[in-house]
Amino acid sequence: QVQLVESGGGSVQAGGSLRLSCAASASIFSFNVMGWYRQAPGKQRELVAMITVGGRTNYADSVKGRFTISRDNAKNTVYLQMNSLKPEDTAVYYCNANRSWSNDWGQGTQVTVSS
Fold it and tell me: Which of 20, 39, 79, 108 is an S-S bond match for 45, by CB 3.0 to 4.6 Å?
């Protein structure tokens, strides 16, 4: 099982920025897709952003133009740069790594945006 360790969460005011990191215990080239999801209290977990092994990215409409997903292959790490944060971005953010035979999750990191 792959270990995914998220970091970088915290509390910021609206308009601020945070960068989340997800460090994988295996080469990220082994994953078809890596992504960031979030889950707010009382809501379902939703996809925020994803990046394929070929480098293609996709974003939820609610974060387009504000969030950027990227990766550092040498560090086996995927990042989520979050700018212009809004209170509605408050949630626990989870890293996900998908292969044809596995689908792994990190433990989550809390992001809180105050108005």
Answer: 39
- Supply angle C-alpha 23, 92, 101, rounded to 5: 50
Q: How many residues can be counted in the chain?
A: 115
Both tokens of 39, joined, read: 């889950």
Amino acid type, 106: G
**Contact indicator for 95, 6 with CB cutoff of 8 Å:** yes
Q: How far apart are CA 25 and CA 31, in angstroms?
A: 12
Q: Using CA atoms, how far apart are residues 100 and 63, in angstroms rounded to an integer? A: 27
The string of pLDDT tens digits covering residues 77-101 is: 999 999 999 999 999 999 999 998 8
Tell me how far the alpha carbon of residue 81 is from its chain's centroid. Answer: 9
The separation between the first and the last C-alpha atoms of the chain, rounded to the nearest angstrom, is 39
Residue 4 near residue 22, CB atoms below 8 Å:
yes
